[in-house]
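Table 4 source record.
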Amino acid sequence: MYQNVRRAHRNAVALLGFLAIPKTDRKYADDVKFRKFRRQLFHSSLSRILQSLKAGMTTRKLFVLMDISDELYRVYPDSTDLDGGGGRRTRDHTEELVAAFELGALWDEYGLVGDIVPFTNDFPRADIHELIAPDILHQLIKGTFKDHLVDWVEQYIVQTHPNAHAQAILADIDRRIAVVPPFTGLRRFHEGRGFKQWTGDDSKALMKVYLAAIVGYVPREMVRAIRAFLEFCYLVRRNVHTLSTMDAVEDALDRFYKNRTIFQTTGVRDGFSLPRQHSLRHYLDMIWSFAAPNGLCTSITESKHIDAVKDPWRRSNQFEEVGQMLLTNQRLDKLAASRTDFADRGMLNGTCLFATYLALHPDEDLDPELDHIRVLDSGAVVTKRKSRRHDDGAVPGPTVLSYVVMAATAQTQHCRTADTLGDEIHQPRLLELIRRFLYDQLNPDSALPGLDVPIHECPLFQEQISVFYSAAATYYAPSDPSGIGGMHREHLRATPWWWRTAPRFDCAFINHDSSRAGIFGLDVVRIHLFFSFKFRGIKYPCALVRWYERMSDEPDEDTGMYIVQPESKHGAPVLSVVHLDSIVRAAHLIGVYGNEPVPDNITEHNALDAFRSFYVNRFADHHAFETIF
């Protein structure tokens, strides 16, 4: 099963069966015999369910494989012994131990439950030791990051400062997290980390904003350790791995091990013999065994739980419901397969009314209408409840590099002419900037850009303007939540009244030079206005932007993030009008907080106006991490 199918909610997770849950009286709940029965029932049930696979493990079939370079087998010659000390466990070795030792010795010395027969023993080519797959959410995000590193940073601050000062530092770290500017899909921490019910999504969101918040309060080695760990997490989460990405994973892991010793030298930790951190050593080997995990975790079955268990149970009469639930699941799978088949045949394109019209007017030229219908049909039809449940930016449809479209509805309460609209939004140069923009559009081969030519050489402009509050950027990001074609969508806002609270003017990346990789081919801007107009019969969707400039060609050596500041010329901000097609995607900026506490009057709504310089957050999502380097 391809990763894009699994991540696009296309029935990649299949229901195998319902496992029995043995119950007993309270007095037998901790009984040794009942505990053994419960464990063995689980393995025996799995063995019975998977019996149909046994034939494929006993009868050999020869397949022709493509040639693979020997280099693939020379990268990690010791990949079967990543720990460098412990022996490798196999099915044969475990059976020898069970035959040679008593149950107590097996548990104390080897951690084995000797009187339980694993379900893999019923299959000739299965080994339960080879089935341990990576679990990014619980091992890395909730385990190593949230439960270890974040807690260790707090312990360090408490141990090295008087109590009152330590609490003030922790409060300011929470303030730094709380004032992070909004970003599509980013969970808000209005009170910092001060809540108890942490979910996996909360921990993922904290990873994106935590690094900048601790700079200045902890040693540089701690910042670098957390940076290396974040890079490791984002690298192993990639949709596709190459030899270079595997080298980068190994490098990030080495830097993490090197810098995490600061927690030991400062007295926060005695050692690092922790199972969840130990799992990091095995990720390279597991990627070679199971390919790119791409978000794989033990909670992946939750994506099927509602559709396969809860909803079918509600549809049943709750009497001998298992048979009814299985029948419901069979019918749902057949309906989903039928819909996919009908869509591939083109049977679901358009509407019944349009199909009838085509049948009655076969000779009419309807190419524009057909193109519009194809765009509408590129998205899957889902219920409103499923849309809310899976509203993670995934977009169905074919794979393209990127595109940006304006919101469907214009805001009619604003002025329609350039000079009056400029006065309304406090941008008196709007008319001038539009004229200079038109000069660039009409003279693409000009030696001088429109910002440098005399204004009298620019076209006159007296057209009506339509104002919009948002635009949608859709781009290829298979490592993020995406559709079957790997497309992901996010919204950029430029509104004076976001959720009736405050203005919101998002930042974005502008395509500066497609021939250059990483951030050197991109520019950072802040969008102050989305608008469109027609000039000489051509419609121009545009954005009024303020430009930012990099403070260095190298990223910050501790956080690994580039730092930018608002660009100015003669004390005035550098503004221009750009075509919507030049926007690549949203950019997330986090203030460089410095050494002073965050003032109380700064919020997430005015943070982009309050700080002098900003980190370009490459941890905002996986596409940003792969793009900004």
